[in-house]
Amino acid sequence: MGIEKRTFKHGFLWGAAIAANQAEGAWNLDGKGPSVADAIPIKSNLRVTDYNGHNAVSDEDIQSALNGVNNIAYPKRRGIDFYHRYKDDMALFGEMGIKVMRVSIAWTRIFPTGEDSEPNEIGLKYYEDLFMEMHKYNIEPLVTLSHYEMPLILSEKYNGWTHRNVIDAFVKYCNVCFQRYKTLVKYWLTFNEIDSVMRHPFTTLGFREQKSTPERYEQDIYQALHHQFVASAIVTRDCHQIIPQSQVGCMLTKVTTYPRTCHPSDVEITLRKNLENYFYSDVQVRGYYPPLILRSFELRGITIQMEPDDLEIIRQHTVDFISFSYYMSVTESVQDNAERTPGNTVFGVKNPYLSTSEWGWQIDPIGLKISLIELYDRYQKPLFIVENGIGAKDIVEDGKIHDSYRIDYFRAHFEQMKEAVNEGVDLMGYTSWGTIDIISAGTSQMTKRYGFIYVDQDDEGNGTLNRLRKDSFYWYQKVCETNGEDIR
Ligand code: BG6
């Protein structure tokens, strides 16, 4: 008798993913406070080199964002008006047949300043209605508690997560959410792409470079990260207590990283890059700081201030599953003049064997399989791909969008997922990114589209906001219906 081929398990969670700050709009309605995302302007003419570094936002930028009435420059403030249109959008998702939908809660809808004594009832009710609407279509919510936004006021007052008080503010916000949504939400994620703190600390930590010094820069960011690790462990504990059937995951940016050549120096630099890449999940999955990272802190003169219980809290409250985004891979090289390529918050060395998206992100389906195998072998915990997709310019012809390039991208990735599952990887679900076109996180463009559902809006906010089904909509519908069997 032959060996049975393994495929996606029964109840595999096929789904969709968006984030509040890129979709909802209504940035200052119904009591919502300003978040860091509301102060980030559009960058449509981004040069390749601009993707590098920490995307610094100055105090003056923030002041002018707050004073400015020119909302055109701040597309995340308007999103795709998901705030008002979510019922119609959920009907479309229901028609697509998805089983899970990843959304995030905007912290500032619940606590506008982050430290208000009482939560904002209108904000709480909004998400309650949203989750109930999902259940109407048998769609399970998967909720990120912090997706690239935090109260702007906490960023100003404390230099974001560098201050320990932010842990208490976050824990309070999360507990309010767990209590309110305990019958509606089972799957939770704490911090989106927690490993990206060094790459863009303003969006992830509310960190202002001007409030630090070049000497303290790394120290401050790792301190802020430590506070997020502690906060994540505390809320994992609280979530398990308040919602016993809940499952809490960490969320990583998985940019598979290869050596550019087999020269031992390229292999070594890649090894170091991957030690850093795995540090974040090591803490959240294994429950301790890896010894090599601690030693590297020591060698770099970085000292993290910790309270006596911090390490014990981190040890005891590890995550139930590992979620990650996957768009691309990069290579590393010691050659200073190696050609570089932009990507998902990274700026790696170009791989001559890969093609790229219109935004230069390298397309590497095999890299997804490699990541799945690496992560599962390292941790043996269920994996959940919670972002994947290709940003592309779509053309509407007679009300139709023939996006065969998008279908090709997904098909190639699903083939690799199937292979990983057959090889024994425990994959619990998959949510495509920006399943309905939303504002780009990196550039704030609308025309960088990821969706199966088209939204009629341009970069300046012109358009009817009408939704259209792309060809890929029907293709993904078939994927969901056949549990990934039919990906032709
Ligand atoms: C991920 C983020 O890094 O990449 C998303 O979690 C983001 O918020 C996605 O939208 C794609 O990046 P971009 O810059 O093309 O929107």
Automatic annotation (TrEMBL):
GO terms for biological process: carbohydrate catabolic process. Belongs to the glycosyl hydrolase 1 family. The keyword Hydrolase applies. The active site is at 387 (nucleophile). GO terms for molecular function: beta-glucosidase activity. The keyword Zinc does not apply. PANTHER family: 6-PHOSPHO-BETA-GLUCOSIDASE ASCB-RELATED, GLYCOSYL HYDROLASE. Keywords: Glycosidase, Hydrolase. Gene3D superfamilies: Glycosidases. GO terms for cellular component: cytosol. InterPro entries: GH (IPR017853), GH_1_N_CS (IPR033132), Glyco_hydro_1 (IPR001360), Glyco_hydro_1_AS (IPR018120). This is Family 1 glycosylhydrolase.
